[in-house]
Amino acid sequence: MALLEVNNLKKYFPIKKGILSRTVGQVQAVDGVSFTLKKGETLGLVGESGCGKTTVGRSILRLIEPTSGQVTFNGQNLLRLEREELRKVRASLQIIFQDPFSSLDPRMNVGQIIAEPIRNHLKISKSEMRNQVAYLMERVGLHPEQMSRYPHEFSGGQRQRIGIARALALNPLAVICDEPVSALDVSIQAQVINLLAQLQEQMNLSYLFIAHDLSIVEHISDRVAVMYLGRIVELATDRELYQNPMHPYTQALLSAVPIPDPEIRKKKILLQGDVPSPINPPSGCAFHTRCPERKEICSREEPIFQNIGADHWVACHLM
Amino acid sequence: MTEIKEDNVCQPREPLSASRFRRNWAKLRRNKAALVGAVLILMYVLSALLAPVLFTGNPSAPNLINSLETPTLKNPLGTDELGRSILGRIIYGSRISLLIAVGVVSVGIVLGIPLGLVSGYYGGKIDFSIQRVTDTLLAFPGFLLALALVAVLGVGFKNTVISIGISMVPMYIRLVRGCVLSVREEDYVEAARAVGTRDVIILIRHILPNVMVPITVQTSLSMGMAILFAAGLGFLGIGVQPPTPEWGTMLGSARSYLFHAPHVATFPGIAIFLAVLSFNLLGDGLRDALDPRFKI
Fold first, then answer.
1. Do A105 and B3 touch (CB under 8 A)?
2. B8 in contact with A at a CB cutoff of 8 Å?
3. Is B194 on the interface with A (CB under 8 A)?
4. According to the model, what pLDDT value does residue B105 have?
5. Which residues of chain A does B8 touch, with a Cβ-Cβ cutoff of 8 Å?
6. What is the pLDDT of residue A160?
7. What are A's interface residues with B at a Cβ cutoff of 8 A?
């Protein structure tokens, strides 16, 4: 049974012009994304910058109001909820932000930051709150003595740990990790990833792990979805996707992952041109303008997202 | 990872901790002009508080025998047309002027900050309505607006404060709204919404503290402006009424004797000038000290 089910999610940002703010067009940031997230699973969501990964994450939480679609979390359709109901649901569906510098209020100390979700949802005494915050800080590898320090006194990795503690404060069922390590030094990335993996095991969390770094996603994910121009083009289990990529875009992405061995020479698939504008996406298959194997049908018809066996889903006419 | 994002005036990325206060204070002290402003303001505040000690006697009681005296040892700044000590009246006048300044910025803050916060945070129709009213009020020169309000409300201390205060409100609304617009897009505001914080709490706990710096600077500058406006109203005879010793009123009544007793107008003028100047110097100094872009 899926914990989180996203169905045909769309988010179009209107482009407004002139003094009357007439809508002259729209950025189709997310254009019909569907996937499920099972209990305890990690679903990786990868794609180039600007493909709509972050918008998917924020639309699920309704930090951005989606244009249409369905998001079912734990049996409730989030897009139908009233303000107050939504506030309550957010206790069990959390998010970790990309930038550990801007996601912590510079005027609050660590204790206040981590206590904020608890204060919003539970009524507990001051000393209980202190204990809870100290426990959470230990859990994410911070020293509870540093509770009264301010975010600017911490390093990027430590700040991201603060963000993780805040997200886990209410024992959520699922966490949307929005590129949680891409703003960190490479040496710190592994630590934070391992922390996330460890917490997942202990708390039986489900992650929607958004990233653009394929090697990190491979390390942490059970299944991986590849996005291109607001759509998912391929979705498969971690192993299947990396060993047997079917979509030409996935193949190109994987061929670009560097291998730390100078002896290996592999053939790189270089894509021509830039990502088309999401204001006016190409007809048919959105990838056809850059696809090395495009056929005549690709510019005419949109490919169907279909299961080609072993829970491997692809949207491509070549299948 | 170093910070690449450029800081905004509205968004200092540090808390108001003790060390930060010390550092800002050190920076403020190094700014000679601001220091002069602060010292002068302190003098005015002290003279307002200690007025009965500094000047024994009634600053409003006429003593026609001594009228229009030039400065002497007994009356260091001379006397006015009714023989009252100008020094005494200036000392007592600092009470009036400072009270007006404090009252005016209180009106500005109490009305301007909440309206600015709501306007900037919620946007949409609320923002549109508040901003169109603000536009209309800003279309009048500030002093003219205060003048018009006095015409409606009538003269006197209370009405002076209310009129000038209201004429300052649009400025506060604009300032706060502008800063809120940039702060509300910050990730930490989104994070607060994600953990289920209510809007009102977000406004008070996350947004307001992060827009306090420009408000502080503006408040210092507004105090100077309030004193000037109040003196202007007093000069025109529609501010604080005689015999209350108010600098602008003193200036207004001294106008008739400008040629054969220029000192009667000069000294209150200097008092106004220095008060306004010192608030402006302090305000500029605060801006430099608190603005993260000028970090030393």
1. no
2. no
3. yes
4. 95
5. none
6. 93
7. 58, 61, 63, 87-88, 90-91, 94-95, 97, 99, 101-109, 116-117, 120-121, 150, 152, 155-156, 163, 166-167, 169-170, 183-185
Instruction: Using a CB–CB cutoff of 8 Å, tell me whether B14 touches chain A.
Output: yes
CA–CA distance, B229 with B104 (Å, rounded to integer):
10
Model pLDDT for residues A10-24, shown as the tens digit of each residue: 999 888 877 777 778
Q: Which of B19, B187, B200, B208 to mutate to test the interface with A (most CBs of A within 10 A)?
A: B187
Give the pLDDT confidence score for residue B7 in this predicted structure. 42
Residues 6+ apart with CB under 8 A from A149: A109, A110
In order along chain A (319 residues), what is the average pLDDT of each group of 10 residues?
Answer: 88 82 83 90 89 90 90 89 88 91 89 93 90 93 91 90 94 92 88 92 93 86 91 90 88 82 74 81 83 82 83 84
Domain locations in chain B?
Answer: 30-54+83-271
Query: A95 - beta bridge partners?
Result: A176
Q: Which strands, in side-by-side order, build the sheet including A206-211?
A: A93-96, A174-178, A206-211, A42-46, A223-228, A231-237, A313-315, A305-307
ipTM: 0.85
CATH topology of domain B30-54+83-271: MetI-like fold (1.10.3720)
How near does any CA of chain B get to the CA of A160, in Å? 12
Structure tokens, B29:
């002290």
Going by C-alpha positions, the residue among A2, A73, A72, A78 that lies closest to residue A40 is A2
Is the whole-model pTM more than 0.95?
A: no
Q: Does B206 touch chain A (CB under 8 A)?
A: yes
**Residue entry with tokens 């003279």:** B47
Q: How confident is the model at residue B291 (pLDDT cuts 50, 70, 90)?
A: low
